[in-house]
Write a structure and sequence with these properties.
2 copies of one chain form a homodimer. The first copy, chain A, has 11 helices and 12 strands. By secondary structure, the first copy, chain A, is an alpha+beta fold. Chain A has 2 domains: 136 residues, 60s Ribosomal Protein L30, Chain: A; 171 residues, Phosphoribosyl-aminoimidazole Synthetase, Chain A, domain 2 (Alpha-Beta Complex), CATH 3.90.650. Chain A has a 7-stranded mixed β-sheet, with helices on both faces. Chain A has a 4-stranded mixed β-sheet with strand order 2-5-3-4. In chain A, α4 crosses α6. Chain A is globular and about 60 Å long. β1 of chain A pairs antiparallel with β2 of chain B, so a sheet runs across the interface.
Chain lengths: 328, 328
């Protein structure tokens, strides 16, 4: 079992000795980081055992990965580059060394995949379960951060990658089916180790995206956020929602609606974006040229026209009230 | 009862419309802040209901205050100025509007007392009780941040203000004594609404402080941190530890040792600092000229000489193992 001081010493020991830009070693009162530009992007996200994850099915290294991925994704959703991270870590009792090593291993693995450094944090006791709060600081794209509020009426709505996999992965994990897990490994991985779209965010920022957000509360809820902030309505089409074949296969097998997974499920960490009609195709080409899938979902409308999905049957589904709210 | 979206809308509503330096309104994926220099100080701290506070005796606005004060104090302990704050807020169930208003009221009150702005954050559900994680970003003093590692052998050790009050305040609150609370209001206030030493930190940084740390784990533990990072020993004197008259009176009345409160109790948020013998008096004068108490505690020694307090009886008290560790 490790003391608070030993936990911090271990984290420092596991981190690289030299981090470009970081001026203060882990363990001082605050961290310090050199930013080249004047504008710094900052985001914070918490995840709690029993609410956002359980161990198992999560391996403790997945928890470290996922906490960091949520923060990095927020920076990606502005078109920014993550620079450095702080981790506030709370255990309900003294952890053993293996537990801390594994957790921090997942943290460092995620961060090194996007050139981001762990530069500080805090360790304390929680009343129940493991709790992680991640702060990520980053730099905005050259043209400034892409906000949720920048969409204009008539802009095309697009999305990177595909939707609903994280929720489908959670479905498999909750049912504790090793058999489904073995047959749908990519879907489970999407839930345990999501990959934030840092490169795609930067590309979209440079190719005319007017608004952007990461899919963390589900496609419907996140699209509403953009519409709320941009004071718009929207119309998206069921046939355009990018659902992978294995997601459809799994849904068919277990009798679930894959569209519902995509609209209501969160944590896909894909990017939802808007671009003017004259620039949308260029934006998607820009993604595809870098090996990233991207497609059209629909179009923004005036606020008075509401927020709808046109089903393949032609029926309209109102997007209000669909999606995840922690307290709703 | 408020939904997640309503909580965020309320926080945005309670915050000032215009914040100099902040470029993105509360509620987007990440916040963005303009820093004039290249180096940014960053710190994060979590507090949990049931571990760090209970409501009552804390009023919920005190919780907001105290969470922010802990982060601001970390920046002060580098000699820095806090610039902006993020708050990750977790409730075990949907909060009512009055609760959120009161909590955020305490947050904004603390922040406005040190010209710091709330610019972003996160709202989610916790498995048990209220949890707050605060991130503060700030600017370093002109000569660079004052680290724990900068003390040299023979430097004089000093402290701002007085020690032990926060723990004495906790003692009164835990005993639920309205009578003691009425007679020792300043002591209780020190626990509920600590005032970080932002001005003192900046002054000390400009007046030759070689190492600095805020007293959050108790004088003994925090002094050990400076000694560990600077690879030194130390000798402090009991007769020099600044104990207020009302702290001594309370301790006498309830049969507790006030020195123990000072050495082992945390959360005073005073600054512990070192300065070369030739500059120490100037540093204290610098504080006193600005109405801030400051005094000498002892001196740093070589690492081999250990860490001791000389009691008034002449007896030596080993400072190893004294103080707060979340898991020890």
């Amino acid at each position: 079992m490790l003391s608070e001081t030993e936990i911090i010493a271990l984290i420092r020991d596991m981190s690289p000795d030299y981090v470009p830009g970081a001026e203060v070693p882990i363990g001082d009162d605050a961290a310090a980081f050199h930013f080249t530009g004047g504008l710094v992007l900052l985001t914070t996200d918490s995840i709690f055992e029993g609410v956002h994850f359980n161990v198992p099915p999560f391996h403790i290294s997945d928890v470290g990965w996922k906490a960091m991925a949520a923060g990095v994704s927020d920076i990606a959703a502005m078109g920014g580059e993550p620079s450095c991270a702080l981790l506030s870590l709370a255990f309900s009792g003294p952890p053993d060394e293996g537990e801390v090593r594994s957790l921090i291993g997942g943290v460092l693995e995620m961060l090194s995949s996007c050139n981001c450094a762990l530069i500080g944090g805090d360790v304390c006791r929680s009343p129940k379960g493991l709790a992680l709060t991640v702060t990520i600081a980053g730099t905005p794209p050259p043209g400034g951060p892409v906000l949720r509020s920048g969409a204009k009426e008539g802009d095309i709505i697009g999305i990177t990658g595909s939707a609903g996999e994280s929720t489908a992965g959670l479905y498999i994990l909750q049912r504790k089916s090793d058999e489904l897990r073995a047959r749908y490994p990519r879907v489970v991985e999407a839930h345990l180790r999501p990959r934030p779209r840092v490169k795609a965010g930067a590309l979209l920022a440079s190719c005319g995206a007017t608004a952007m957000e990461d899919v963390s509360d589900g496609l419907a809820a996140d699209l509403r956020h953009i519409c709320d902030e941009s004071r718009l309505g929207c119309e998206i089409e069921e046939r355009l929602v990018p659902l992978e074949d294995d997601l459809r296969a799994l849904a068919g097998e277990v009798g679930e609606d894959p569209l519902n997974w995509a609209l209501s499920g969160g944590e896909d960490y894909e990017l939802l974006f808007t671009a003017p009609p004259g620039r949308f195709d260029e934006a998607v080409r820009c993604l595809v040229d870098h090996g990233i899938q991207g497609c059209r979902l629909g179009v923004t409308r005036s606020a008075g026209e509401g927020r709808f999905l046109v089903k393949e049957s032609g029926e309209l589904l109102n997007l209000e009230g669909v999606g995840y709210d922690h307290f709703a």
